[in-house]
């Protein structure tokens, strides 16, 4: 006669297989969503450089950096939203999920507007004093930077609404939106080229692409919530929960991108926008390898955050680091060895002379950074989660939030 526990091992094995399969599938969607637009970027760069010149492209590269870096104004709320929503969805707490979503969305909107105003105020200083931009391009560059300031709130809002899809493990839907909207980041300037070479129009097209993206993400996020307009729309007690977790993430959100992107500002201030192009172009190419570890990180974070099976999480963690090393190490070695040939084939002899060593050093750094991302993600998913009580307007009684 079967004894109690006879089926325990097969059950655990089946769960493990399902978990690994889910991680692999969702990572594939994330790599697809991140990788395809980035491949498009590699094709777009030579066309943009030859059409608008190295100096304008240098300013455009700075704009792409700013677009990413000013996402720090969410103060870690994007990742905090994913972390706590994953737990709420795991426990089927619809009221808590709505409270988290709408509160996070409101906070991100406020912080995004503050970030945009800050960047707009700094734009004249950046264009006229910090960056070495020729006088003939300064007016054009200033107008472009003002347009970039308008996109900062959109970047913040995107981090909040993406958190809903990630917490729901809806990576297929997320990347169905991510691919075309991210592609527009590089396609939009190309579409403008037949009509204008002005930075104002090129970066204006980027701003429009961000607006299209946030509209699509909001619609998808609302579809992942049960009765999304039932409220609560702002839960004051959730502020402590979100900021206590997001606050310590802000340190890495500020310092990390600053360490990654400050180099271009330093080069732009000490040398020229042409030098920025020689640096940022190989940088943008080799850091495309981050698509894999970042995709894997976004996949496993909601699993770590749900706080349900720590032994399973440990196995997923170890396998993630191991397979990342096995995949990326040969690729990085190839890039380092064949850097001159790759640059010659892609961009021409001028980049071989000015960018080979840059590409080789950055490739080694990307490998180290990629392997560090999984333990970083595991730590972010580890903190304990407090709970509060809110009353939903559309539901009867109090619910644990």
**Arithmetic mean pLDDT:** 77
Helix/strand-derived category reads mainly alpha
Using only C-alpha atoms, the radius of gyration works out to 23 Å
Overall geometry: globular
Largest sheet: 2 strands, antiparallel
End-to-end distance: 45 Å
User: Ranges with pLDDT <50 over ≥5 residues?
Assistant: 1-17, 384-401
Strands ordered across the widest β-sheet: 1-2
Q: Count all strands and give the number.
A: 2
- Our count of helices gives 12
Helix content: over 70%
Any idea how many domains? 1
Strand/helix succession = HHHHHHHHHHHHEE
Beta-strand content: under 5%
Can you walk me through this structure?
- There is one protein chain.
- The chain is an all-alpha fold and 401 residues long.
- The chain has one domain.
- 81% of the residues lie in helices and 1% in strands.
- It has twelve helices and two strands; from the N terminus they run H-H-H-H-H-H-H-H-H-H-H-H-E-E.
- It has a two-stranded antiparallel ribbon.
- A hairpin with a 6-residue loop joins strand 1 (389-391) and strand 2 (398-400).
